[in-house]
Amino acid sequence: MAEPTNPQPNATPAHQPASQIHRIAGWRRVILWPFAVLVRLWNRSLRFEIDPESLAIYSRMDRPIAFILWHNRLFIAAEIIRRYRNGRSAYALVSASKDGAWLEVFFSMAGLRCVRGSSSRLGREAASALIDLVKEGKDIGITPDGPRGPCYDFKPGALVVARRSHANVLLMGMEFHSAWHLTSWDRFTLPLPFSRVTIKAQLIQAEEISGDRDEAAAALRQRLLAINPDPHP
Q1: DSSP symbol at 120
Q2: Judging by beta carbons within 10 Å of its beta carbon (0-12, 13-18, 19+), is residue 37 exposed, middle or buried?
Q3: Pairing state of beta strands 179-181 and 189-191?
């Protein structure tokens, strides 16, 4: 599929009914701009520490990547991609729900593009759209425990896109040295401004996840937990 001459900041799968997707528009979108500026300044105040191996993985540009990260790490995901992926286009899978509409606006203001859908709504159409994007050379991002948990539950469906597109998987690890944890289902994490965050990455070749889906999902869950050292079940 050829890239559009003027690509839109967010993507709606071709077979996905637009009427089923909640959007934020008009004045509601405008009033979020001050918040978006605050978030950008907040993120840029953070002091990232990254080892040479992880830096090499994040900076590798020879083929598109499927980022996999826990839902409670979303706050700084766009900043990591901005710093280490050199402006490469990246698309995040965001729920088609009302909550997802607000997240879509946040991501678009932070520099990420979105595909709307989830395991509960319009999942098949969203997965097809993500596969097409990978084939076009775009990076994509998936939260295997989103959009509603349980926290740190690696749903096997998170592997569908990576397997069908033959993309390599990049597991994103973040250790927050000073942070607030919200009371949401995922204990969403907000690193304190100017605090230190240790960034990790593990690259999983496409061939490594080609076997039994449940076994591959369980193995990736353990590896993702290991590089995201929070208290977890």
Answers
A1: S
A2: exposed
A3: antiparallel
Q: What gap in Å lies between CA 50 and CA 73, rounded to an integer? A: 16
The label of the residue with tokens 């050292």 reads: 229
What does the alpha-carbon distance between residue 15 and residue 191 come to, in Å, rounded to a whole number?
A: 38
- Residue 10: the pLDDT is 57
Element (H, E) at 142: strand 139-142
Alpha helices in the chain (DSSP H): 27-30, 33-45, 52-59, 77-84, 98-110, 123-135, 158-165, 213-226
The encoded tokens of residue 6 equal 């003027």
**Average pLDDT of adjacent 10-residue blocks, the chain of 233 residues:** 38 50 72 84 96 96 92 91 85 77 76 72 73 90 86 86 88 96 93 97 90 90 94 53
Cis peptide before 150 (omega within 30 of 0): yes
How far is Cα 107 from Cα 150, in angstroms, rounded to an integer? 22
Using CA atoms, how far apart are residues 10 and 1, in angstroms rounded to an integer?
A: 17
Say if pTM beats, i.e. exceeds, 0.70.
yes
Q: Cα(94)–Cα(79) distance, rounded to whole angstroms?
A: 17
Q: Which two structure tokens, joined as six digits, stand for 195?
A: 């605090």
